[in-house]
Design goal:
three-stranded mixed sheet, 9 helices
Length: 153
């Protein structure tokens, strides 16, 4: 049985490029899979699907097609990274210095931070943010973008 984590796919497919990026001096925001996996549990699915918009209806159909006749809980892997852009409080980051090893693994090291890393997210806060009635029920499914645009003007 394997006891070590796999390298993150996007880093492992081009290790030299990832190493250059992490050494470049550009501030990075890193959302590791183990801290940003959001489970779409049965209660949350019911709440989201009950909204009945075209967006939530499509999500319900996709979930049914994915799960088939078995009861499975879907995991939303990239949703928290998107949510962070809209509301950074959903996935607070810790300043860290990271490097990419020759296998594409992310390794913490001593030195000044080059990344803000989300080490823990709160799925309840995530769903509260995205389950606002005016998000799922609005005529445009970009409510959070409108929300952010208002804060920037």
């Amino acid at each position: 049985m394997k006891n070590t984590p796999d390298a993150e796919y996007n880093l492992a497919v081009d290790v030299p490029a990832a190493q250059k990026l992490f050494a470049s001096g550009v501030t990075l925001f890193v959302m590791p899979l183990d801290s940003t996996q959001i489970k779409l549990e049965e209660l949350r699915r019911s709440q989201v699907f009950a909204t009945g918009t075209s967006l939530t209806s499509a999500l319900a159909v996709l979930t049914q097609q994915w799960s088939g006749d078995t009861i499975r809980t879907p995991t939303l892997f990239d949703a928290m990274a998107v949510a962070y852009v809209l509301n950074p409080q959903l996935c607070p980051v810790t300043p860290m210095r990271l490097r990419i090893d020759d296998n594409g693994n992310t390794k913490p090291e001593a030195g000044s931070p080059n990344a803000g890393v989300c080490l823990h997210s709160d799925s309840d806060q995530f769903f509260d943010f995205f389950h606002a009635p005016y998000y799922w029920g609005c005529s445009s499914a970009i409510w959070p973008l409108n929300h952010i645009r208002g804060e920037l003007t």
